[in-house]
Specification:
Low-confidence stretches: none
CATH topology: Trna Endonuclease, Chain: A, domain 1
Strand content: 35-45%
CATH class: Alpha Beta
Helix content: 25-40%
Strand order of the largest sheet: 1-2-3-4-5
Distance between the termini: 36 Å
Order of helices and strands: HEEEHHEE
Largest sheet: 5 strands, mixed
Shape: globular
Oligomer: single chain
Radius of gyration: 14 Å
Mean pLDDT: 87
Length: 123
């Protein structure tokens, strides 16, 4: 698949995930937050948490799940980026946060989205 198609699929998956989460009551704070250590696809507010969300899109399921695709090094980049975000807002150690993964199945209409809350945590 050409790189531009993966980019378009990724953006579409992020929009699908964002819309779904907003319907569940989450409030969008940032999209594609970037700093020196990485990027976070969506940052949202759930009643008592800031939620850092990694969106994964899949057209085929035989290559593993979204949870499996977010490796330990990727988790560490997300954690460092989330820490930077919280520091810039002066929210570090003042507000609860969690890390979720949303997998969007772009070719499946029966279960197009899987939301994994608390997918990983800071150790």
């Amino acid at each position: 698949m050409p790189p531009y198609q993966r980019h378009l699929d990724g953006k579409m998956a992020e929009q699908i995930a964002c819309t779904h989460l907003q319907k569940q009551g989450l409030i969008l704070l940032e999209k594609n937050y970037r700093c020196f250590s990485g990027e976070i696809d969506l940052i949202m507010k759930d009643s008592q948490h800031i939620v850092f969300i990694e969106v994964r899109s899949r057209k085929r399921t035989e290559y593993g799940s979204a949870l499996e695709s977010v490796t330990k090094p990727k988790q560490m980049r997300i954690i460092r980026t989330a820490t930077h975000f919280l520091q810039t807002k002066k929210w570090l150690f003042r507000i609860n946060s969690r890390f979720d993964i949303v997998q969007v199945h772009l070719t499946c209409s029966t279960q197009p989205l899987e939301w994994i809350k608390n997918a990983f945590w800071v150790e």
